[in-house]
Amino acid sequence: MKTEIVDVNETRKNVHIEIPSDVVDAEIDRQARVYSRKARIPGFRPGKAPATVIKQRYKEQILHDVVNGLIPPAVDEALRERGVEAVDTPDIQNVNIEPGQPLTFTVSFDTLPPLEPGEYATISLHRPSSAVPDEALDQAMQRLRDRAARFEPVEGRGVDHGDTVTLDLARTDPSGTTDTHSDVNVELGAAALKATTESEEHRLATVSDYLPSAKEWPDRRLLLTAIDVATGSLVVWNKRSSATLVEAVASSCAAPLVAPPTTINGRRYMDAGPQPGTSAQLAAGHDLVVVIAVARSGPLGPPLSEEVVTLRAGGSRVEVIVPDAESLAVLFPNLLDETRRALCAEAGCAQGAAGAAAWRDLLAAP
Prior knowledge:
The chain is of the alpha+beta class.
């Protein structure tokens, strides 16, 4: 077999291959015998037709099979002899085959570019440690425990962290339509605890920066609300609480899934926003109660309307301030969109400036 290699470029190669005519004719004869055993030719019994008849009648099929039988091994042998390796299936071109003539064709393929390793004697390698840290082992064991865990009923105490509560859930929209679900399993605060947020330390530092001149509780009465993540109960912080002012503000602003819950005395607390209402009932007993609520204008709906009725029933005069149309346009639909913080502040200041005189007279009225 004759071969001639041509470098098209640094990586592209062409190899011209010629298979001798005696090899080609021998393969033609072999394929003719295969066809003779299967051919049905009028005037001849099966397998008795002369080879010349078979070669003439099935010439195209026989030559096709000869090409497919001779070219693949010839290509492998040529590449091996030349010491080159194709990175993909070689492209076969310019195939010429005739009985009594050599089979010629061209193989075109790409090879890997030459690699200059450079100076590597000074390179040092370090085998990475295969030791499994205790923390990873503990996490794997905990996943196995969670997978095999079963729910067991608990009686005689309230809900605590890690408990799953089974309850019937009824949700009523403003139109009065109620959506009811039975036997719903809820792990209180689970989403807030598992959410990926900034660290609690970073959050406390941010809140502290928000209060540059007020690190301590003021002398006047100030109440801040939060929710105990484990129990779902409302907690009210004040000057006599065990929480610092920074911790109380951080917990009161720890929006679930956005900010980390705040740890105070070993327990975790988050924003009371998910709890219905505005906590206006905490102002019960005052002569005048001003409720600033992030709600849409128009008739007040529950639970805010119920809070107002309760306060007024207790003898308080209640005034409610809600965002105007311009403020609503930048507040909704996402109250937690920080990119709109400046727009919200500007809209609130504009509403305050526009309504200051009217509210001053309203609040001064007996």
